[in-house]
Write the structure tokens for this entry.
Amino acid sequence: MNLVDTHAHLDAEQLTPQVEAVVARARAAGIRTIITIGTSASSSEQAVALADRLDGIYAAVGIQPNELDTRSIDEWPRIVELARADRVCAIGETGLDAYWDFAPMEYQLAMFDRHLWLALETELPIVIHMRDCGDLMLSVLRVAAERGPLCGVMHSFTGDAGLAERCLELGLHISFAGMVTFKSATDLRETASRIPADRLLLETDSPYLTPHPHRGRRPNEPAMLVHTACCLAEVRDVSVEQLARQTTDNAMRLFGLSGPAEAR
Ligand SMILES: [Zn+2]
């Protein structure tokens, strides 16, 4: 199998000390490519350093809405600079979060807009976090789509089928994390079963959201992606090999990745 974990936080303190072993376990489980996602300027720096050092690792750079603080504006030029680095394949994660109130929504909106502009300028896809703010998110994305092509992913999607439909219309991909495997997530699985095959992505969001049957185990790590892949293959009524091939092709295309030759 050849899977891509499109969203992991390898710089997280639960994973960094053992990152070589984490990547080796992922590879043994068939996850040959991992995108490690920055959540702040320093986390984005670490993501780029990890991608430089380790085979099969790419980086995304950005400031996550729950990580925004008063220094974020001053740190923004660092993100812009990092976006040009060799192994950077996306801008993010960014987005809007109305569940937590670590940063005022006005500030989240302003910083999200900077990420959207940067993605457009660098022609890199954008990695979008959204929690409890579907309508607001759609209105922001519609404005962005008028400025130029909108290309990216709604990461760890937990919205309803209607919201997924609107995001697809805007040209975005939809990515599912471990939550889709939880016993209670019947509606989310139903939504996942209806995403067009060429817009579907997989992720772990490690170190969070460990999939069933290991739910609750911490930290989650990229090797666990296999459980999410099997769950989605089942609900979509395809073989796991077919699901792997399709989602890996999608990830390679969206993020412009060149995988290890022997893995193709
Ligand atoms: Zn994340």
The longest strand covers residues 88-97. Strands lie at 3-8, 31-37, 57-61, 88-97, 126-131, 152-154, 173-176, 200-202. The chain has a mean pLDDT of 95. Residues 245 and 254 are 14 Å apart (CA to CA).
